[in-house]
Structures are given as C-alpha cells and as structure tokens.
Design a protein that fits this description.
This protein is mainly alpha-helical. The chain is built from 7 helices and 2 strands.
Length: 145
C-alpha cells in the first residue's frame, strides 16, 4: 500500500540539486508528492537511529527510490518558503508524516503505539483533518521539523 506523502549522505538540498535532475524547489511544481511506501513503514522507522536526519526519514518513506527522496528533500526543505499550490493538503500530510516519523524513529514503543492507532500516515492525515475542521491548521501542521 502506498500513500501520498534518505541515507543521510548524498541527499541534495533544494539549492544544490543537479540541473539535469529537472527538480524544482516548489511543491506547486509537482501535482502530488511521491507516494510513501506504507507497507513496512513502521519497521523501517524502527530501524532508524533516534533523531534521524531528514534524508534518513525520506529513505524510509521511499526505499530504493532516489528520485522520490530528492523531490521530498528539495520541496520540504525547512529552510525554504513553502508554496504547495493545488496539492497543498497532500504535501502537508507528507511533511507531517515526516515530522512524526522523525520523532518516533528508533523508539519501538512509540512505533508500536502509532501502529495500534493506524500508523504514521493515518496519524498525519488525522492531524491535518483536525486542523482543517477547527480552522486552525497552523496549530496542527507539524511545522516543527
């Protein structure tokens, strides 16, 4: 199952992506974020060290898909202004899932708790829905990571 939403070394930042990669720095240039490989995601997050890099989290999201890792890394770089365009909700769910994944990475207790409640991706979607319903998306949009 894949749901729309890195080794630490070698993942390019938005400002240093190779020109031939054809990757833009804005989410609005992509119709949807790459699909996170949900099957086995919690296991891949459990294998990460605590306090993983963004690259490691994206590698867990997109195992073996270097292009998807680079797109997510470039678009969701916290140092860049976020312009999500038409795919705003999908990109924000991806960003929220990355923040949750980074927080629980390497902690089997937290990962097992997240799995009992439907997993990291479902949690990210629920957080975004809660913010949308209350009109307080800023409070729930996982800006911390």
């Amino acid at each position: 199952m894949a749901v729309s939403m890195g080794s630490a070394t070698g993942i390019a930042s938005a400002g240093s992506l190779p020109a031939h990669a054809g990757l833009a720095a804005s989410a609005s240039d992509f119709s949807q974020p790459p699909e996170i490989v949900a099957d086995g995601l919690e296991g891949r997050l459990a294998a990460l060290p605590q306090n993983p890099t963004q690259g490691q989290v994206y590698e867990a999201f997109y195992p073996g898909d270097r292009e998807a890792q680079e797109i997510a890394q470039a678009v969701l770089d916290p140092a860049r202004p976020q312009q999500f365009g038409a795919a705003e909700t999908a990109w924000k769910v991806t960003k929220c899932a990355a923040a949750i994944g980074a927080f629980i990475a390497g902690n089997t207790l937290l990962i097992s708790k997240a799995a009992k409640f439907g997993g990291v991706l479902k949690g990210a979607k629920l957080i975004m829905q809660a913010g949308d319903q209350r009109g307080e998306e800023q409070a729930y949009s996982c800006h911390a990571w």
